[in-house]
User: What shape does this take?
Amino acid sequence: MSPQDLFNRGLLEDGHRPDEARRWYLLAVESGHPAAAQRAAFNLALIEDESGHLDEARHWYGRAATPRAMFNLGVLEDCCGNTDAARRWYSKAIESGHAEAAPRAMFNLGLLEDREGRSARARAHFRMAAGSGHEEAAARANERLA
Assistant: This one.
């Protein structure tokens, strides 16, 4: 079975049979195929994150190493109170320039800075998100700037 087929089998099981999805995603990761392994690692991270297995989620997000994984790692660390790690992952997502992950990370980093009393930094991130062209992030950032 090809690495893409392994990944696709994981997709078929995802959402209703997480243990089976995990099995197929692990096989796709173990295949070493760059694209299939990366997508499978990201999906494994999502399963583990949703299941509350945060250490496993961190591992798989790290293996995926995509801008979306970086953003999700930022959210995970932020929710766990690990603000330095969250800041680092949000910054990496922003640096990626990814059309979806970067603007959302800009907004979330603004929220983090605001919670920590760094209003000037927060406003700078909200302005970046507002100017990003990302519909949701820009709208939410504009609300914060108003």
User: Anything to note?
Assistant: The mean pLDDT is 97. DSSP finds nine helices and no strands in the chain. Residues 66 and 122 are 25 Å apart (CA to CA).
